[in-house]
């Protein structure tokens, strides 16, 4: 693949990343310090990407430069994702393909005594408790899950989850934005 065609693919990939994260050009401009017009020209391909522009974008998206420019893989099967910490919760992406179901490991700090705030959004979530105790509020239900237990729910139902008590909780989460659900395929024993 030549350099020109690789650079031509950067703009559409940047637009796709921004749309997946449901952020606006204005929000991204505020985060990166890059003007809205420059971001728009990068996404449309009318401005060539430079290292000075790509570094803040990679930082804002929590990806490596290779991932940002969609560089070809080198044959290394390991996933090198950077943890993202937001409101004390650490989220480690375990998948890197665009669209579809995304996998995460979450580490949620102990209960801080704050009142849970229920939320709703498009999607479907499946979670599995690895360590600790997870409190899940889902609609009218209030459940505490232990290691080895799993739950799944439509995220349009008001929900909240966090550590139950004074110890952190670790969970695996599969999330599909448009209501995609994880499907298990088995072969029949003929």
UniProtKB/TrEMBL annotation:
Keyword DNA-binding set for record: yes
An annotated GO cellular component: cytosol
Keyword Transcription regulation: no
Entry-linked Gene3D superfamilies: Jelly Rolls, lambda repressor-like DNA-binding domains
InterPro entries: Cro/C1-type_HTH, Cupin_2, Lambda_DNA-bd_dom_sf, RmlC-like_jellyroll, RmlC_Cupin_sf, TransReg_Diox_bact_type
Family matches, as CDD domains: cupin_XRE_C, HTH_XRE
Stated name of the protein: Transcriptional regulator with XRE-family HTH domain
Source organism per UniProt: Hoyosella altamirensis
